[in-house]
Amino acid sequence: MRNNLLERRNEARIIRRIVAIITLIVLLVAGGVAFFGYNYIKSSLEPVDPNSNKTTEVDIPIGSSTTSIGKLLEKNGIIKNGTIFKYYVKLNNISGFQAGNYKFSPSMSLNEIAATLKTGKLVREAIFKMTVPEGLQLDQIAKIIAKHTGMSSDEILKKLDDRDMVKQLMKKYPEILTDDIMNDNIKHPLEGYLFPATYSFYEEKPSLESIVGEMLTQTKNVIVKYSGTMEEKEMSVHELITMASLIEKEATQKTDRHNISSVFYNRMTADMPLQTDPTVLYALGKHKDRTLLEDLKVDSPFNTYIHKGLPPGPIANAGETSIEAALNPANTEYLYFLAEYGTGEVHYSKTLQEHNALKEKYITNKRD
To answer: Taking the model in full, what pTM does it have?
Structure first.
């Protein structure tokens, strides 16, 4: 009996120890969860990137709930957690959000974002906006950037061509900047990669790196959308941007870029040179309204009258319309096209004989 009593006491002691250990573990886990939960919530209430100058357009549809707005903002990288935003708004009795197209920055606090949605106005106005049109070459873009940096266009172009800087950008944007841009035949590694758009900046003289970063980010955002199609067609980013640049330089307001794209692909399939004048002018390093006969003889890998296939790299920046057309050419048998003198209307033909007849009708006779 005495042994049984001692055994029960030992069992009770062991049970108490087990209960104490389990209780301690539960307390530690609860404390850990509370600690990490507190830090997570605290972090979610802070701006995503306090130093960011980037802005993102977010369209808030009519009738959007706080939950759906939070999800939209989280998806676009404006806030860290949509659910935290929802409860922040609820606990602070904020309501009356307005639908519309907003520009938000990851540097904005939840309070600023909520105030913006309530007033329907931007909390921060851009100090300046920089517009880069489609079809520009790097030397022309450098002149636009020069107006806002305090640097000369020559200094900017030299820095953009600096191999060390380019290699750093390649590490930062591996999705678009590949070893292809380091080809010795290429004049400017970043030619064609600075996306044409209007950019807003929130400091008086942003660094060249920040400006170029905004433009490369926009290029990446556009290109990523077509990654599936590129993979299907076994087309590299460099080939896509190069083809798109040719289409962009040949296009006019009345031009169907998909038809121009089809002509280029049809010529390559037929083992014909592309014979596009903008590549000749790029080889010459001149901006001219008209290509002369002697220009076509320039000795350059960019001269598509001499060399078949795509040139070594892009000859200008291309908009998304041209990029999409480069991936989706029209289904035609056209091998030639020309822009009508005076109107810019484009005429297509399947044979050289037809092309020459159109040239006589729409260019030669009209010039005379």
So the answer is: 0.69
